[in-house]
Amino acid sequence: MSAKISVCVALGAISVGSARRVGSFEGADLKTEQTAATAKGPCPDYFGNIEGIVTVADADVGLTPASAPYCDSNRVESPCIYIHKAGPWRIDNECQSPGPPDGCHRYHTVKYSECDELEHFNFDTRIDTTGAFNTDGVFIACADRVIKHEIACYGPPADEPVPCECPEREPELKYPCENYFGDLEGTVTVVDPDVGHTPASAPYCDTNRASTPCIYMHKAGPWRIDNECQSPAPPDGCHRYHTVKYSECDELQHFNFDARIDTTEAFNTDGVFIACADRVISNEVHCYGPPADMPEACDCSGSQAYWSVEERPVNFNCCKEVGIDQELQPNLPDLAETAYSWCNPNRVPAHKRIPEFLQGLFWLKDYGDFSAIAFCTSLAEWDNETHTALLSPWMTWVEQRLWDDGMPPQELYKTAGTFGPEKPEGQWRHPDYDGVQEFPSPLLYELAFEMPDDPDEHHRADVGFTHSSRRIINWLARLPLNEIQQTPDGSVTRERPGDIWSRPSLLFGMVNLHHYYPVRIMDGEGNIHRERYELMKNSYVQRNATFTYCEWNCAETA
C-alpha cells in the first residue's frame, strides 16, 4: 500500500513562484509576479520534508474559471495537474510554493524508494500534459515504489496561502486504455488472467459459470463499435494485463466476447488468443492494483493476484527451515540471508503497505527460549484511515523447530487457529503437514497505532486479536506496544523511528505477566543490522537450534 499518512492540513493549487507565462484571462495576466513569490515561504514550509525522491502535485487546478486557464493554455482538459516538484533537486527542478487562486487545493507530497524514470522527466510547462500523474498526485511510472504519501491543503490568497480543510472530491473517470496498456493500434488483445483469485473478483467467474481463476477480456482485435476497450478496474490486488499484438488474426473478426469473461477457453494464461498464437509479434505485461476507479501500477512479479490477510488461506506447503549460526549449521540457510526473500514489503500492494518506519524483521528480545525468535511486520496490511495494521502470524513469525516437531513446528499450527497432527503411535516425532488438513480462520493481530505529529516522536499502539478463540484476551489483558529509546539492559539503542519497542502483557491492565522487546534486525529494504543480529545469536541459549518460517506462496520467491 502506498503507505499514505494523510495530514489534512493543506493541498493546493497553482504555484505563483514560476516566472513562465501560462496565459491570461479576463484581462488578468497569469504571469507570476516575482514580488508575490518572494512573500511566501519556501516549499518545506508548506509541503514538509522534500528531501530525497519526492514529487509534489496539485490535482485541483481548473475546477473554477480562476484556475482553468492553466489547463486551457496547455491544451489539457480541466481539471488538470500542476507539478510543483518532480524528483531530486536540480537547477531545472526547483520546487514551487503553492499559490491557490480559487479555493482549497490538495497538494500531494509523494516519496518514492527509487524512481529512475524521473531523471529525464520534462515538466517545464508545470502542467501535466502527458498523463504522467494520477489524480492522487502519484507519478504513475513509479507508483509501485511509493513509500510515503502526505496531503496538505491550502487556499487563497495566492501570494500568502493559508491552511484550509481538505475538500473531498468525487473520483474522476479513469484514463483511456492506452494510458494503461500502451499502443493498441493494429490487431491487439488485452486480457487479465488474475480474476477470481479472491472473493472480491470470484463473482465475475461464477456468474459466467467459469471456474476460478478466469480470464477477463478488455480488448479483442481491431476496434469496432462492439469491441470497445475497457480500462482496468482491479478490485482485489495486483493484476497482470497482457497486451498481445498479432501480425494478423482473422479469427478475431467474428469472435464474440460480449460476456467479457472467456467462457470458451479461447485465451491461454499468458493472455494469448490461442487460435492465433503462431502469429504473435509481442506480448507486454502491465500490472495494476486498486483502487478500481483509479488503478495504480503495482509489482506483479508473483504468479497470482494479491490476497488480503483476512482472505488468504493458510499454506504450510511453503515452510523453510533456517539457522542463525552458520558455524554451527553450515548446511542450513541463514535467517539473515533469506529473510528479505519473504519478509519484503513490496509483496503487499502499495495502497495497503505498512509505513516505512514500521517495516522489517524484528527480533523478539527476552521473549523466551524454545519458541518464536522473530516476526515480520513488512507483510502486514495497513489501513491509513484508522492507522491500523493487520498481521497474520502464520506467515510472519519465525518459530523454533523442536526435536520432535514435524514441518512446520506445532507452534505454527496454533497461529493458524488449530493444533498440529498428533504423533503416530510408536513414533517419536510429529508428522509433516500433509497438504490436506483444513484450517479455520487464522489468528490475526490488530495493531492500532497513535501517530504523533512529529515522526521522530515515540509511537505507541494497542495490540488486539480478531480470532474468536482469542478475543477474550482483549477483555482480560492489555497488550500495549510502546516505542522506546533503549532496551532496559542498555544493549540496544534506537537509531531511527520504529527500531525498538516494549511489549508487556498486563492482566486486567495491572499485572505484568510477560514482557519482551521487539528489536529491528532488518529494515524494509532488506538491510541487516549486523550488530543486533549478532546480539540476538549470542543471547540465544540454543544457538544450534533450527527455526522455521512459512511463505504464503512457494512460487513467489526464489
Model description:
With 558 residues, the chain is mainly beta. It has 3 domains: 24-163, no CATH class; 177-297, no CATH class; 319-556, no CATH class. It has helices spanning 34-39, 43-47, 68-72, 177-181, 202-206, 335-342, 410-415, 471-476, 530-539; strands at residues 24-25, 28-29, 54-61, 80-86, 105-112, 146-155, 162-163, 187-195, 214-220, 239-246, 280-289, 296-297, 319-322, 361-365, 372-376, 381-383, 388-391, 397-401, 445-450, 460-465, 477-478, 480-483, 501-507, 511-522, 546-550. Strands 13, 14, 15, 16, 17, 18, 19, 20, 21, 22, 23, 24 and 25 form a 13-stranded antiparallel beta sheet that branches. The two termini are 23 Å apart. Mean pLDDT is 80; it is low at 1-38.
Blueprint of the fold:
Layout: E1 24-25, E2 28-29, H1 34-39, H2 43-47, E3 54-61, H3 68-72, E4 80-86, E5 105-112, E6 146-155, E7 162-163, H4 177-181, E8 187-195, H5 202-206, E9 214-220, E10 239-246, E11 280-289, E12 296-297, E13 319-322, H6 335-342, E14 361-365, E15 372-376, E16 381-383, E17 388-391, E18 397-401, H7 410-415, E19 445-450, E20 460-465, H8 471-476, E21 477-478, E22 480-483, E23 501-507, E24 511-522, H9 530-539, E25 546-550
Antiparallel strand pairs: 1-2, 3-4, 3-5, 5-6, 6-7, 8-9, 8-10, 10-11, 11-12, 13-25, 14-15, 14-24, 15-18, 16-17, 17-19, 18-25, 19-20, 20-22, 21-23, 22-23, 23-24
